[in-house]
Amino acid sequence: MIPGFKILNEGSTGTGKTYAIATLVKSGITPFVIFTEPGAPALIKSIREHKLSEDSVKHVTISQANQSWTALQQMSKNLNTLSFEAITKLSDPNKSGYTQLIEFLGLCNNFVDHNGESYGDVATWGTDRCLIVDTLTGLCNMGMNLIVGGRPTRSMSDWMVAQNHVLSIVDKLTTGINCHFASTHTSRRSLTSYGRHHADGIRARQEDGAEASAQLRRGYPLPAKRR
Questions:
Q1: What is the pLDDT of residues 101-120, one digit of tens each?
Q2: Most buried by CB count within 10 Å: which residue of 82, 115, 119, 167?
Q3: Contacts of 103 (CB under 8 A, 6+ apart)
Q4: What is the pTM of this model?
């Protein structure tokens, strides 16, 4: 069997990534969607506007991690009273509740849609079906939550472990299944206000460094540091 297509649909919020899923039905492909972030309403709207049966698209939503008010209150007290060094050493006693990524893998092993219908292991599907992860952004968040829970800090090691684990899942989805596979991803390439200020700061330091080097070569005193 020739494996199906594997694509990443990237775009900013509201550009129609989820809305476009329903168009697969008109191509004779049944979409099976796992929502890792709230997105089902946009899909249902698309199904209705394309005049399709709501059973023509199978979908299921994994509820996002949701801390209790008590846990949030306790963490807020810690952030208010502890030093930054002590905060970096905190752990989340409720980490075991962050099982969303484990639930995602369970759905890959046996896809059960929002109506409770079971469709088996996605690795056994053919190219008349398309598994869709909406969104990859949410999947990455699940990977990090699996490692740290609700801990307020993330170390480089945490990022490495989470990234490697999510990468192994993406590798399985793109090379280990024969059905079509698509994932949406929220683009965050545009610079935020913080990002622009950060970039301006880097540029200013680079300019200072170049100016300092030129002054040293000419034997002149170094300029005062920018504030």
A1: 999 999 999 999 999 999 99
A2: 119
A3: 62
A4: 0.77
